[in-house]
């Protein structure tokens, strides 16, 4: 497979749009939780306010979609490289760690600074919007090496960081499992034993919890494998193109209905996340096939927002808490004012994360090249899937 083909299969404008929407939904969800908790209001609301708050209800479901996209991009790349004998642990860890740490480490520093201000202004309100924040050096180090939330709490008020730890251990576990499979095929027992030991180490170090959400991530890997087999099938793509309006409407409706059901029923995580992940597959498949044409304006905006969705996800939570603390006396416990404030707060916080993206995530390729040199990599790729 050529590099151009691999890039085509791994990226699309549609994926960026979905990532952008998912990140915005997470910010909306945390804005609602924090504002309503600080004012001791019923988050379920009623009447027209309940309808207005529907878009703020899908933060957890949005994380499930993030897992699918990650599985498609990262897991799919591992599959392709392993099949072609190009997988290299040094390259892989350099790319994955540089991608995560370039934003996570500054995110921990930002959380420490912003939380200090928030607690200094109103520690009672900070306690009201979340768990008692742990800001010691040990908690920061534990988060930096992706051991939250099984071995420690997420750092400070940044309760969103838990999913990054799962992401990292998904990366390691899947690469180990893939290496083990190809070791069996190639009859290399030493490599098989090392890969199995590594997979076991993931479970021991992080905890058995890593396997609970792993199926949601593997859904994305399945999409990547299916794209490799069917993505070039012009008859299949042509059939979808002839039914484009129906396909888009049906796929979006399916995801919405399953996400709404998950939100209302509140199933266990190892049921809810895979359910939403599977329901997202038709929509993501359509997005992957829609990257070649000139995008509409709304697609361009969604793609732009998706470009800094990771930074938005890492940086937003302590900023939300600070904004809630600052605005604590701006209005009374009115349901109407608080509902409107959720959207105003989310827009403000999203805007604040953009300059942080410019300072951090936008320079991932620089950190990546340094990591590749340090780990003795053979490649100098600057793509950031």
Structural commentary:
The chain has one domain. The longest helix is centred in the first third of the chain and has 40 residues. The chain contains 16 helices and no strands. The N terminus is likely disordered. The chain is globular and about 70 Å long. The chain is an all-alpha fold and 385 residues long. The protein starts with a helix and ends in an 11-residue tail after the last helix.
Entry summary:
With 385 residues, the chain is mainly α. It is 76% helix and 0% strand.
Main sheet characteristics: none
- Helix tally equals 16
Order of helices and strands: HHHHHHHHHHHHHHHH
Tally of separate domains? 1
Write down the overall geometry: globular
- Cα(first) to Cα(last) distance is 18 Å
Q: What is the tally of beta strands?
A: 0
Return Rg in Å.
21 Å
Report the β-strand fraction as a percent range: under 5%
**Structural class by secondary-structure content:** mainly alpha
- The helix content is over 70%
What do the pLDDT scores average to?
A: 88
Uncertain segments are 1-10
Primary descriptors:
385 residues; disordered N terminus; mainly alpha
List strands and helices in order, with pairings.
Layout: H1 3-10, H2 13-38, H3 47-52, H4 59-83, H5 89-128, H6 137-144, H7 162-185, H8 189-206, H9 210-230, H10 234-242, H11 244-265, H12 269-288, H13 297-307, H14 309-326, H15 335-359, H16 364-374
Helix pairs in contact: 2-4, 2-12, 2-13, 2-14, 2-15, 4-7, 4-9, 4-12, 5-14, 5-16, 7-8, 7-9, 9-12, 11-12, 14-15
